[in-house]
Amino acid sequence: xxxxxxxxxxxxxxxxxxxxxxxxxxxxxxxxxxxxxxxxxxxxxxxxxxxxxxxxxxxxxxxxxxxxxxxxxxxxxxxxxxxxxxxxxxxxxxxxxxxxxxxxxxxxxxxxxxxxxxxxxxxxxxxxxxxxxxxxxxxxxxxxxxxxxxxxxxxxxxxxxxxxxxxxxxxxxxxxxxxxxxxxxxxxxxxxxxxxxxxxxxxxxxxxxxxxxxxxxxxxxxxxxxxxxxxxxxxxxxxxxxxxxxxxxxxxxx
Length: 254
What we know:
The protein is of the alpha+beta class and 254 residues long. It has four helices and 13 strands. The protein has one domain (16-240). The chain has helices spanning 9-52, 71-74, 131-138, 198-208, and strands at 60-63, 77-90, 96-109, 119-120, 122-130, 147-153, 158-163, 168-177, 180-190, 193-194, 219-225, 229-236, 239-240. A hairpin with a 4-residue loop joins strand 6 (147-153) and strand 7 (158-163). The mean pLDDT is 79.
C-alpha cells in the first residue's frame, strides 16, 4: 500500500497571504509617512507665510509631535514654534528696529484654508535685541549718524548711548506703559553739559513706536536689560493668525 505525502498547497497559500498582508501594511505605512512629510512641509511653509505678514524677516517653523494628518479630525494643530535670528519692525517712513531675535510658541492653531482665515488659541514669545543691532537701529533715527555706541547696564536697568565718539551721551530706560514697550530718555549731555530731554525723547519715540503692535496681538509682560542687550517677554490669547489686509493663505492639507 502506497502512502501519499501531505499536500503543501495550504501552507503555500498561507505564506502568500502573509506576504500580501505585509506588503499592504508596508505600503500603507509608506503612504502615511509620505503624507505626514507633505503635510508638515505644506503647513510649515504656510504658517511661515502667514507670520511673514506680521514681521519682516525669515522665520523658521517647527511643528509639534502630534501627526498633522489628524488635523482634519481634531480641527486644530496643538502647537507650533516660530523662531527667527533676525526680524525687523518698522512703520512707513519711520525708523527701523533691526535684528530682533524671536523665540515663540503658538498653541491650538486653526489653520487658514480656502477663505484665508485662521486663529490661534494662545501664544508666548521672547524677543532679544542685541547691543550691536540696537546701535544699528538707533542710527536709522534722525541725526542717528551721530550715535557711535550702545552699552547696557543690568544693575541700573539702563541703555547707555554714546554720541559723537563719546563727546555726548544719553541714557534710555525701557519700561512697559499702556501695554507697549517704551524708552525714557534721561541724562543727556554734550561736551559735559546737561541738555533738555524733550527733543531727544521725541526722536526715541519714533523708534519705539514700532513696538505699539505685536504679532498675534501679544502683549509685553516684562522687559529686562541684560549684558547683551534688551529682552522682552510677550504673551497673547485668542487671535487671528492672518491679517485682514494681507494676502490670503491656504494651509489645507486635503
